[in-house]
From TrEMBL:
Keyword Membrane: yes
Top-level lineage group: Bacteria
Membrane recorded as keyword: yes
Keywords, comma-separated and alphabetical: Membrane, Transmembrane, Transmembrane helix
Protein name: YeeE/YedE family protein
Organism of origin: Limnospira platensis NIES-46
Residue ranges of the TM segments: 7-25, 45-64, 85-103, 109-135
One Pfam family cited in the UniProt record for this chain: DUF6691
Amino acid sequence: MNLKENLIVLVSGILFGLGLGLSQMMDRDRVLGFLDVVGVWDPTLIFVLGGAVGVTAIAFRFVLRLPHPLFSNKFYLPTRQDIDPTLIMGAAIFGIGWGIGGYCPGPAITALVLGILNPVLFIIAMIAGSLAYTLSSKLTGPGPK
């Protein structure tokens, strides 16, 4: 990566982290309250979800009409459009982990600045799970394509 790309990544990461903090997405209790739809549901994060989906739905219509991104030579878009068991299993594991821990990777990394143990434990478990998958993929081969 060159300096310009590194600066774009840095600014994007800072902006993303500030957004997570401002929206309280790094507060695991708020996230767990939002995910608890049959208990004491906290609907405040619905505005974060609605804002993200709304901005994305509008912006992608304009951005994908460009010949290339502003800071790259081409778009890197997924080519597969099928839904296979590996995708379903990965989404389920992600959702279950989010529901149990109250974190997904971005908010967990952002929450490290809070100086509490929960995000540290989550990051350790996330790394262990990634390493376990990598090891199992080397032993058995990747999932179906």
